[in-house]
Design brief:
six-stranded parallel sheet, alpha/beta, Rossmann fold
């Protein structure tokens, strides 16, 4: 059974307020007293009453985070960045996974609001079209920051990359390397980042005087994973034989699936066909051939997103109006063996 502030105070013959200040490292408490209090608190297994703190400060010191999936290296690094900052600021993190499902995402928003979280970070699912649940968060007064997969119509702070520019730079690199017939294994028609990566691909072709051919665009399902890449590559080989000299894929997993399919069908990457991915996940550097890709700084994205959220939480409780921010994280190309 854990001890209480009152018990510690009685045993050391000091006031409860002094015990509380000592545990919080207040400067007006001597180091000797702090040491005694902390040592006894440890011996008694003292645990702060977070519910009481919440009632007193009107803060739960909890942040809710909703991501589409946790299995991708990209989102695991984002979580690392979020947790690093949150813990340093005294916040706990509730992590939820929408599995790319809009209905589940909506239920999770309600759950977080009911839990009384101080703020919410969310990367929208690929299925999300209605934004009523996001507007609901805003109407409740709970600060919310969108990251990675966002919606342009929602007015709140966002942390993103310039997906259109990143894709443009990637495809321009392929063109400058001499590749002309470049297929695009794109994501679904709904997520904004999928749309922007496709638009960047298309713009690069146009700016380099290469006619856009819609038959070279293959749409992956909502997961945009290894299986999508493999299946799209099979369709590509069936419909275009060997007339394609490069593929730009919406994610690294799609790109790796494509490489596997090409190799299974006797093609050499990059001699017969080059492949370029997007995100720079861990496996991109260890597959054979290693994958050229767009480096998407996931850790920095999580780090900055939670910093902005906590600033907005502080502003709320200090009755200071927060201005919506749009932070664009820089990307760069990582050139490896596949191109």
């Amino acid at each position: 059974m854990s001890g209480s502030l009152k018990q510690i105070a009685e045993m050391l013959n000091i006031s409860v307020s002094t015990v509380s200040k000592a545990l919080k490292d207040y400067e007006d408490v001597s180091e000797k007293t702090k040491d005694k209090v902390k040592q006894l608190a440890t011996e008694l297994n003292y645990v702060p009453n977070t519910f009481a703190v919440t009632l007193r400060t009107h803060r739960s010191k909890i942040i809710g985070v909703i991501i589409p999936t946790a299995v991708h290296h990209f989102f695991s690094k984002i979580i690392d960045g979020i947790v690093k900052v949150a813990e340093s600021k005294g916040y706990l993190v509730i992590l939820l996974q929408s599995n790319e499902k809009e209905d589940l995402e909506k239920k999770q928003i309600d759950l977080l609001l009911n839990k009384g979280v101080d703020g919410i970070l969310i990367s929208l699912s690929n299925e999300t079209k209605s934004l009523v649940h996001i507007e609901k968060v805003k109407a409740s007064g709970v600060p919310i920051v969108l990251f990675d997969k966002v919606a342009k119509s929602i007015k709140c702070s966002k942390v993103v990359i310039d997906d259109k520019k990143a894709a443009y730079d990637a495809v321009s690199y392929l063109i400058k390397k001499g590749f002309k017939r470049i297929a695009n294994f794109r994501g679904g028609l709904n997520p904004q980042n999928s749309i922007d990566r496709f638009l960047g691909y298309k713009k690069a072709l146009e700016d380099h005087k290469i006619k856009f051919d819609k038959s070279l665009v293959y749409i992956c399902n909502s997961n945009a994973d290894f299986e999508d890449g493999y299946a799209s590559a099979e369709k590509l080989l069936k419909e275009h034989s060997t007339s394609i000299d490069a593929v730009f894929a919406v994610t690294d997993l799609v790109a790796i699936g494509a490489i596997k399919c090409f190799q299974t069908n006797g093609l050499s990457v990059p001699s017969d066909i080059a492949v370029l991915g997007f995100s720079n996940w861990f496996m991109s550097s260890i597959v054979t051939p290693s994958l050229s890709t767009v480096n998407q700084p996931a850790y920095e994205m999580g780090f900055k997103a939670v910093e902005i959220l906590i600033d907005e939480i502080d502003n709320k409780y200090n009755k200071v109006k927060s201005e919506n921010q749009k932070l664009i994280i820089s990307t760069d190309l990582i050139i490896r063996e596949s191109t």
